[in-house]
Amino acid sequence: MSLADRYPREVAEILAKYPAEHKRSAVMPLLYLAQRDGGYVTKDAMSDIAQLLDISVTDVGGVVGFYTLYHDKAEGRYRMQVCTDLPCALRGADEFMKSLCENLGVRVGETTADGLITVESVMCLAACDKAPMFQLQSPNDIAYHENMTVDRTIELVETLKRARKEAA
Amino acid sequence: MPHVLLRHRDVPGIDRLDIYKANGGFEGLQKAVTAMKPGELTEMVKNSGLRGRGGAGFPTGTKWSFIDNKNWPHYVVANGDESEPGTFKDREIMESNPFQFLEGVALAAYAVGANTAYVYLRGEFWRIAEALDRKIAEMEAAGCLGAHVCGTDFALKIFTHLGAGAYICGEETAMLESIEGKRGQPRIRPPFPAVQGLYAKPTVVNNVETLANLPPIVTHGADWYKQMGTPDSAGVKVFSLSGRVRKPGNYELPLGATFRELIYEHGGGIQDGRPVRAIMPAGASSSFIVVDDKVLDTPMDYASVRTLGADLGSASVIVIDDTVSLDWVIQKTVHFFAHESCGKCTPCREGTYWMRHLIDRAYSDSGSVADVELLLKVAKQMQNKCLCPLGEFATMAVVTGIERFPQDFKERAVVGD
Questions:
Q1: Under an 8 A CB cutoff, do A143 and B127 touch?
Q2: What is the CA radius of gyration of chain B?
Q3: Of A18, B7, B320, B415, which residue is least crowded by CB atoms under 10 Å?
Q4: How far apart (Å, rounded) are the C-alpha atoms in residues A134 and A127?
Q5: Do A128 and B164 touch (CB under 8 A)?
Q6: Is the confidence at residue B117, as pLDDT, over 60?
Q7: Distance CA B60, CA B49 (A)
Q8: Confidence (pTM)
């Protein structure tokens, strides 16, 4: 099933935001829509978007590759993106990251064995006064978690684990 | 003094339309569209002395006046990309005082004759986009947006557009490329956006905080606004204070308040009572200010900060104390810019790449003085050669860090020398 078949209302709403003669503008919101199912953009979805917008698959792929919040392969269900940029690092973000990884048993960039969490180190998230902090990118959301401790983060991970079990 | 921009700190619930309205909301818009010509609005903003709050500090009314009135339609783009390390002010405005910001978007659109405006948000502001979409719908239902703004013939639609994680999209031409569905890479200028912007049509791009200043200016007048701040830098500014202070956060102060006032009165001083060693007044793209008593008493306005060999920029004040070595700081800033370089122009793409390798080696156990010397050389070679300000920004901390704090580089970089 193509993206437009699965999400007809959403696709129409996205296209309506831009002038009809400039529908290429819809590529970014359509890519987010494509990530809604599995957390990444499949090759099929890229073709769907290219067809919808009358652009080449390469054009779509170029956009996916340029921006950090689009992904072209499956990782953990949640991407825990910890800001380790200068202002956060001045408030302990590097130490937070190190301890978090030890607790989760992964290195930066790796996914927990249960496939739930991928830990990533990212650039400034405009939350410099609330470090340590991270955002949790999931297929249809990006949520901020600020003024965090490792203990509270582990609690959050446990909550996410339980929620997944209950959903299954 | 009550807040002008961070009004939610004085008026709880101002993110609700009824409460915003009950507290003077949309009076400025009503006044502008019913009683002022667009040109009069532009003149008023020029007279207020308002300068762009995104970092460049260019006079807002003057920017509007460059719009090409022979080519239509016109667009307004609100720059909510806010990605400079140390900057988190636009986020608070949009989260907590959203209608004042959106009213500002409508005022800018009226001034330049735009019937469509886009609010460009960094992708991480996912939930802000969802909230703004709801606020925009509420404004339409209340007649503040749509086919007849405040019952007039002025029509305006506002749409949000989410970026997806790219600092460069804060640069206005890269932002326009991004809205057009392309990779967010800056355009060669001229032509400037006021002549050829979004979809090659005349476009004004204004920062979120800049726009949030417009409703109070229109309601209370240019003279009222000019009473705040300094002759060179009128009005109020939201200072994002971060780093080694006790109470980091956003503080709205008149331009011209001193560093001391911000750091000690509002920020509670430095953690563990240590001394301030360096200040980055404009986020990661700052030049370092070597701090002494005179510096702390310097007014934070555009002209005064320049006398310290730095720029006020977006007023994202990162405070560094004596526990921090500047070579570590530079490693952070260089990694940031190397990651965010868009790859379009060679000096920035290659320069940030080599700076990253050099600072990593200089900072490692095998580092040498020669690495630091070469790093400085590469940074200087990049200056004045890049397509957009990002490349230049990447060099500021490197050059001023090495030149103004040489001891921080010698101490570490001795092995192998």
A1: yes
A2: 22
A3: B415
A4: 9
A5: no
A6: yes
A7: 8
A8: 0.96
